[in-house]
Design a protein that fits this description.
The protein is mostly helical. The chain contains 12 helices and no strands. The two termini are 34 Å apart.
Length: 270
């Protein structure tokens, strides 16, 4: 039992789970825009997420060298290196314009992680900025990259999906910020720190209204998608309402991050 627990923790800490969520959103984009399965872009997003998230989480620890690398961190480093090679392999299978957009997302990720400007911390520590940068990165990777690589026209449906995808990721991060409220540096000025937990939950719930009804304005309207989105809104609403600082780490790191995967599975199954 302990060994299974350790494997599960490694699965979460190594960012495999969040990478599956990104993969699921890429597949959702392909479904919504009737794009045939594009393996290079889907796996580029999957392995790129592992590299990006592990870099964000463990870069400072590795550079500070404050403690010896534990076996778990060595395994995560090995997985990240393998994922980096996979990212390089799939990167060169993408369209040239897609590569350019991917580089733009990479720069945004590096800005989020590394202190580029003198006497300034990285963007992750800029007051109130973190949630917007992460949401934009997810929109870029899971929506823009698949469409650009498939030479899709970026018309009305694209902009509607950008807003919806941004709201979805924004709401998911709100749950994380509520749960991490006691541990977050007050200078981060996360949404719960600025407006309180109750108003943060209300904000998240109100944002789900335009998320749902924007679907009606798409040119390529799919009626069944309304039912799937209704289930998604209900699930995310429950996660928001019942989130608090006393929740287990698995509440956010597993269950909340499973929402995009569940969304995709609902489309596949129903």
């Amino acid at each position: 039992m302990i060994r299974i627990q350790a494997l599960f923790d490694f699965y979460l800490k190594s960012s495999i789970h969040v990478a599956l969520s990104v993969y699921a959103l890429v597949r959702m984009t392909q479904f919504m825009f009737a794009i045939p399965y594009d393996e290079p872009i889907a796996l580029f997003a999957f392995f790129g997420t592992i590299v990006g998230y592990n870099f964000v989480k463990y870069d400072a620890l590795a550079r500070a060298k404050k403690r010896m690398m534990r076996n778990e961190l060595k395994l995560i480093a090995g997985l990240s290196f393998f994922s980096f090679l996979a990212v390089g392999f799939y990167f060169f299978q993408l369209q040239l314009v897609t590569q350019a957009v991917a580089v733009g997302v990479l720069i945004l990720t590096l800005l989020y992680t590394l202190p580029f400007f003198p006497n300034r911390k990285n963007a992750r520590n800029w007051a109130g900025v973190k949630i917007y940068i992460v949401s934009l990165c997810w929109v870029g990777v899971t929506l823009m990259l698949p469409l650009v690589n498939a030479h899709q026209n970026l018309g009305l449906d694209f902009f509607i999906k950008c807003i919806q995808r941004f709201i979805l990721v924004f709401d998911l991060i709100l749950v994380f910020e509520i749960i991490d409220l006691a541990n977050d540096d007050p200078h981060l000025k996360t949404v719960p720190q600025q407006i309180g937990v109750k108003r943060t939950k209300l904000l998240g719930l109100l944002l789900l209204i335009p998320f749902y009804f924007l679907e009606l304005f798409k040119n390529n309207f799919i009626e069944k998608q309304l039912w799937v989105n209704l289930a998604l809104v209900a699930i995310l609403s429950l996660f928001l309402v019942f989130s608090n600082e006393k929740r287990s780490k698995y509440y956010s790191s597993f269950w909340v991050e499973s929402v995009p995967i569940l969304w995709w599975l609902m489309v596949v199954l129903f």
